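Quick check before the chapter quiz. The format below is the same one you will see on the exam, so make sure you can read both the input and the output lines.
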Amino acid sequence: MNNDFPSGGEEERSESTPQSQGGKARAERLSADDRTAIARQAALARWGTEVPQATHEGPLNIAGQTLSAVVLPNGKRLLTQGAFYLAIGRSRTPKAGTGALTTVDGLPFFLQADVLKPFITQELMASTTPIFFRDRSGRRLVGYDAELLPMVADVYLKFRDHFHIQDKKVPEKYGHIVTACDMLVRSLAKVGIIALVDEATGYQDVRDRRALQAILDRYLRKEYAAWAKRFPDEFYRQIFRLRGWQWKGMKVNRPQCVANYTKDLVWSRLAPGILEEVERLNPKDDRGRRKHRHPQYLTDEIGIPSLSAHLYAVVGLMRAADTWDELLKLVDRAHPKQDDPRQLRLFIEPA
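Here is the expected output.
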């Protein structure tokens, strides 16, 4: 089963209408396999339409786990299906027949057990539809609303409390899930109060600056190092090919716009704030020249290897592209700009 395809969520209908009663009766006559098949057809149909692509993505560290999180253009925060499963103590990869397509009574696999039904609220039932999207590299993925996570964890904790009230032990097969959900809720509470204090005091601005500075410290030196060639000749040769210019070798001065292309294709995509910081460290003089080369400010541990890996990837895309516009689309998809989600591009063209 391809778990990339989530089930399509039905619009909420009033149970008092004849249509809804008839629909409910028909649904009850369907087998689980029939409901899965219907969900698959709905998902396949919806994949035929345009789906949102994440504008932001990154790792979320909480409760001892690293979870994949994204934000969609409408501001919706999602956890990928694998991250969601991992957070509540289940396998990151669902077993066959237990992925996003498998729903019973509109509930995802992790809430289908009959013993959990008494603890599932109407609000939760209305929020469990999987959301399918594309990540920033274009891959199609399944996710769940991040706000659903504490609600699901609460179901398992209420389930646990029900047994404790009766002085009984939680069934063994749910033990590890209950433990994971308990850790998750405690961690979320801690993160929540920290976020509230940061917002109330304005400290989040300082926090964000410190996070950015930590990235810059990993990538950049405070003082320049000895010069060494970092950009392969092919990088520039491919620029000339795709722009339709005659290549005369590295000894011939390149058009000024090539420096802007290099900023766009390389420096603006390495890590947040790198382009601005390296230009601050290595400013232009009165004649518009820089005293050093930008790579001389990169650290040996992180900066140089990251630059080399990025250049290798970009040159590969250059080889695959037939036109300059095709290259830009490939690079934007594979290596989005770190500081400009709108992908604005201003170039100085040669005279």
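If your answer matched, good. The beta strands are 56-62, 65-71, 77-80, 131-134, 140-145.
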